[in-house]
Amino acid sequence: MPFVNLKITRDGVTREQKTQVIAEFTETLERVLKKPPEWTHIVIEEIDTDDWGFAGLTTTEYRKRLADRAKPA
């Protein structure tokens, strides 16, 4: 029984996009590993950007700094 736990930041991902991701992950597991779709479980967890960090910063702050650097002087 495949179990996929996909964690993404909460950035306005639509229901349609999530549906597509679930379908494509399921199709890949069926095609590559020969796992029946009815055995496949996929969970998408959306994490607030204030709760996801890397490079010593929250994702919110990291993206803000990137945006600030991209602004014309």
TrEMBL record:
Chain ranges of the 4-oxalocrotonate tautomerase-like domain: 2-58
EC number: 5.3.2.-
Domain of life per record: Bacteria
Organism: Variovorax paradoxus
Active site (UniProt): 2 (proton acceptor)
Keywords, ordered alphabetically: Isomerase
Gene3D superfamilies assigned: Macrophage Migration Inhibitory Factor (3.30.429.10)
Similarity annotation: Belongs to the 4-oxalocrotonate tautomerase family.
UniProt GO molecular function: isomerase activity
InterPro entries per UniProt: 4-OT, 4-OT-like_dom, Tautomerase/MIF_sf
Protein name: Tautomerase
The organism's taxonomic lineage, starting at the top: Bacteria, Pseudomonadati, Pseudomonadota, Betaproteobacteria, Burkholderiales
